[in-house]
Amino acid sequence: MPVPEVDADLCTGCELCVDIAPNTFELNDEGISVVIDPEGDDEDVIQEAIDSCPTEAISWAE
Ligand code: SF4
Fold first, then answer.
1. What's the CA-to-centroid distance between 40 and ligand 1, angstroms?
2. How many domains does the chain have?
């Protein structure tokens, strides 16, 4: 089952992924997106968040 991963070095904290998939991503205290629940949203919603990330910081990991 693939799970989404955020590369903290690439994330700019633009919050787009949080807006699209709020049950999966959250900004941490440093303003960087973290995965709070890898199955928090439907896979196609998470995919939309991945596709929308301006810095391509999110990817699927096994
Ligand atoms: S969309 Fe990308 S850059 Fe923006 S907060 Fe999410 S992971 Fe970070």
1. 16
2. 1
pLDDT of residue 49: 98
Q: Which domain holds residue 18?
A: 3-61
Residues having CB within 6 Å of any atom of ligand 1: 6, 11-17, 33, 53-55, 57-58
Chain-centroid distance of CA 12 in Å reads 12
What would the pLDDT profile of 15-43 be if each residue is shown by its tens digit? Answer: 999 999 999 999 999 999 999 999 999 99
pTM to 2 decimals?
Answer: 0.95
